[in-house]
TrEMBL record:
Transmembrane residue ranges: 28-48, 54-74, 95-117, 129-147, 181-199
Name of the protein in its database record: Cation diffusion facilitator family transporter
SUPFAM superfamilies listed in its UniProt record: Cation efflux protein cytoplasmic domain-like, Cation efflux protein transmembrane domain-like
One Pfam family, short name: Cation_efflux
Cation efflux protein transmembrane domain mapped to chain residues: 30-230
Length: 319
């Protein structure tokens, strides 16, 4: 007997946080336009000031704008209700943009390291005063975008889901804007040092440092996104604890074939087989309710339970 939890009224996690969703989306599109516009400003500024760090950051910001644009598109898609083709809905699409974003950033950091290497081989004079002004502008633009997204994203954390459906996206974008802020702070300090010492090689060192930092974080994000895609057990679920707690339920003789995975890092799906020692319909219903309630309590939003009695235990190899 297969049975499924019926409490799907709020399956897609909508309703409670539409207001925060709205401010979150506004924050994202603002960050998109700011980054797009600013990357053009940077590119021109980088060429005029002869700074590799600034040109590298321009490409980096341009990629960032593309990735945020992609994230906005994917989040629109991932909010759609389930269809005959995608029976779980479109939640996984937001993972796709987190994946593309990480690959973007990784390739960007490699390009920046190559540019920095070239600047060491062919040193050129850097206009430190221009660098200083662009760095100040960069700090202001990215700091503003970061705070806007943080404000929109945080409303999410307080509603319903453990960390909102935008988990991977918002985190990778916020992380990225924060890196930009730190990167610009470094460029700012670097420009002051170059102004007073004339050490143009500092520009290349900055570009390399920014690139390595981005590469490291993008790799981390890529790994966590791939884990979700490969259906690993979510980090907030303890399978042993789940099994032990379920075994304690009155009337349960065995729990097996337990699977737990996550759709997008926050919406968890679980299925298992429960063997009970009493085949009366009422006690079956009773045990079932308890099992589903416990699964929900232990952070499985979408539980599926198969009930078996000692007499008709499943004979399949993989049970």
């Amino acid at each position: 007997m297969m049975t499924h939890s019926k409490e799907h009224s709020n399956c897609n996690g909508q309703g409670g946080h539409q207001h925060h969703d709205h401010s979150h989306k506004n924050g994202l599109s603002l960050a998109f336009w700011l980054n797009l516009f600013f990357s053009v400003v940077e590119l021109i500024g980088g060429i005029f000031t002869n700074s590799t760090a600034i040109i590298a950051d321009a490409f980096h910001d341009f990629m960032d704008a593309g990735a945020i644009g992609l994230a906005i598109l994917m989040e629109k898609i991932s909010g759609h209700k389930r269809t005959a083709t995608f029976s779980y809905g479109y939640k996984r699409f937001s993972l796709l943009s987190a994946l593309i974003l990480s690959v973007f950033l990784l390739s960007g950091s490699v390009a920046m390291i190559i540019a920095a290497y070239n600047s060491f081989i062919n040193p050129k004079e850097v206009h430190s005063v221009g660098m200083l002004w662009i760095a100040l502008l960069g700090l202001a633009v990215n700091g503003f975008a970061f705070l806007r997204i943080k404000k929109g994203g945080h409303g999410h954390h307080h509603h319903g889901h453990s960390h909102g459906g935008h988990n991977h996206n918002s985190e990778s974008i916020m992380l990225h804007l924060l890196e930009d802020v730190l990167g610009w702070a470094a460029v700012l300090i670097g420009s002051v040092v170059i102004y007073y010492t004339g050490w143009n090689w500092i520009d290349g060192v900055l570009a390399t440092g920014i690139a390595l930092f981005i590469g490291f974080n993008a790799t981390k994000n890529l790994i966590s996104t791939l884990k979700v895609m490969l259906q690993s057990v979510p980090e907030d679920i303890n399978l042993d604890e789940l099994q032990n707690e379920l075994q304690k339920i009155d009337g349960v003789t065995d729990i097996h074939d337990v699977h737990v995975w996550t759709m997008d890092g926050s919406y968890n799906v679980g299925s298992l087989h429960v063997v009970i020692n009493n085949s009366k319909a009422r006690s079956e219903q009773d045990v079932m309710k308890k099992v589903i309630r416990l699964m929900r309590k232990l952070n499985i939003q979408h539980p599926t339970v198969q009930i078996e009695t000692n007499k008709n235990r499943c004979q399949f190899v993989n049970c």
